[in-house]
Amino acid sequence: MKVKQLCINSYKSPVQSQSWASSLFLNLYRCNSQQISRHLHRLKVNKVVKGGQSFIFGDEKVGLAVGVKGSCYNAGGDVARGARKYGFGRVVLSQNELSIKETSQVISGLIQANYKYKLLGDAAKEKLQNDENNDKYSYIQELHVQDNIFEDPYFQQLIRLAQTKLYARELANTRQEGTPQFFVNEVKTLFKDNPNVEIKILEGKQLQECQLNLFYAVGQGSIHPPALINLTYRGNKDSQQLHALVGKGITFDTGGLHLKSYGHMEKMYLDKSGACNVLAAFKGAVDMTLKVNVTVTLGMAENAISNTSYKPSSILKSHKGLTVEINNTDAEGRLVLADCLSWTQATYNPTSILEISTLTGACKAALGENTGGLFSNNDQLSQELQEIGKELQEPFWRMPVTDEHRDMMKSQFADLCNSGQPKVCGASKAAAFLFNFVDEKTPFAHLDIAGPKFSKADKGIHPPGATGFGTQVLLKYLLNKQE
After folding, report:
1. Is 334 noted as a catalytic residue in this protein?
2. 303, 329 contact by CB (below 8 A)
3. Residue of 84, 283, 334, 481 marked catalytic
4. 3-state helix, strand, coil in the chain (%, to 5)
5. Annotated catalytic residue: which of 136, 260, 291, 317?
6. Among residues 67, 110, 77, 73, which one has the least CA distance to residue 92?
7. Strand order in the sheet with 293-303
8. pTM of the model
9. pLDDT digits (tens, 9 = 90+) for 237-288
10. Which residues neighbour 464 within 8 Å (Cβ) at sequence distance 6 or greater?
11. d(Cα 159, Cα 171) in Å, to the nearest integer?
12. What's the CA gap between 164 and 182, in Å, rounded?
């Protein structure tokens, strides 16, 4: 969707013109249901539906109105759904009683909700292209806003953040084609000609050669070799600070020899969401030419079953030198992340490390499907991330990591085990495991997005599918670190 400037005089009369026939004229109000009902009555509007916390109407004269009550982002989502329902391909911001900040959040919500992932076959694609009667305005193609809004820095920032989130969704929604090699090719295509981006890739046996044995073990049962993808962007060469992002990229998770049961495996193409979010945030930082130095590490592997799959009871030596007893092959993400964290720290000694992953169902059970879990060794970093998440409607709730959780991850036969007993506090135990692979003096945050990674329904700012939850938080964090 293109976001364009609109001179106020340019849309005073064109409602009747052919060129604006597919336009939805959007009115934004700050009011309750009774107030907006009276307003719609004065306009003689006879088609009204309530959408979420907003009020939508369809009419030849005006098109759609939103009375913001609660989340401005969700109101924007209602706009997107209302426009699709009435077949509008262009949205024009007509009347507006909201502040620039509120308006920017509405437009951000519209962009986020105006997304749909659908992989069509050749015949269906050809039909859509050739059929003049097809619903070619299923998606909003253009959004027009006034100059004072379009030129506002906050508006521009929210637009870029939202567009970055859409790219993360597009990556996460890939199915069987989304192999480790797919992501290797993707980053080469994106950055091979960019002199400000350095690319490092370790594939297959190279992981073993570099002592990333935990990582390699997870992917050794797949015909698709695992790959560590590292990208470094130096947007401020005068600064000594370097911030690191690490993402879990399990391209599909069968559970390994501890096979997942029916009903628990079908969405496991989304187990790469953390890596997709990190790659999208990195791309956003490069595209925006941020004055910040950042390195990102993506741990891409498929946890598959074959005669070469890693086995329960194995004891493996990690990149950091700690030994790990494997007592659950379905606790694979933390193994990949452990080596990625250790490798990143040893290679770059970063100023801070943010790691994001769909790590535990326990976090989803604790916090639900709209909030991520935050585990950190640094109070200031935790507070910053929570404030960013609250502003962008990607909230994180801080969770504990105590000595009790650490003790649960110790093994009788090795330094650590990858799935501790008893079967309680799974999210905190997983975080405790990861903390062993990061220098305690380095500000570190583990973000568990197992709950909000996926949306079943078309609601709020999320259409069905991967949500990209956390992508905006990562990019906003980098924006804040500019010097």
Report:
1. yes
2. yes
3. 334
4. 40, 20, 40
5. 260
6. 110
7. 197-203, 227-234, 293-303, 243-253, 352-357, 444-448, 372-376, 396-398
8. 0.91
9. 999 999 999 999 999 999 999 999 998 999 999 999 999 999 999 999 999 9
10. 116, 455, 456, 457, 458
11. 19
12. 19
Which residue is associated with the tokens 């950190």?
A: 376
| Phi, psi dihedrals of residue 102, rounded to the nearest 5° | -65, -40
d(CA 417, CA 331) in angstroms, rounded, equals: 10
Let me know if 272 is a catalytic residue.
Answer: no
Peptide bond into 14 cis (omega under 30): no
Q: pLDDT tens for residues 94-108?
A: 667 788 998 999 999
The token duo for 21 is: 């026939």
Q: Are 428 and 375 in contact (CB under 8 A)?
A: yes
Residue 243 half-sphere exposure toward CB, CA atoms < 13 A: 25
The architecture of the domain spanning 161-480 is 3-Layer(aba) Sandwich (3.40)
**Rounded CA separation 319/115 (Å):** 40
Token readout for 12 is 């005073």
Largest CA distance in the chain: 78
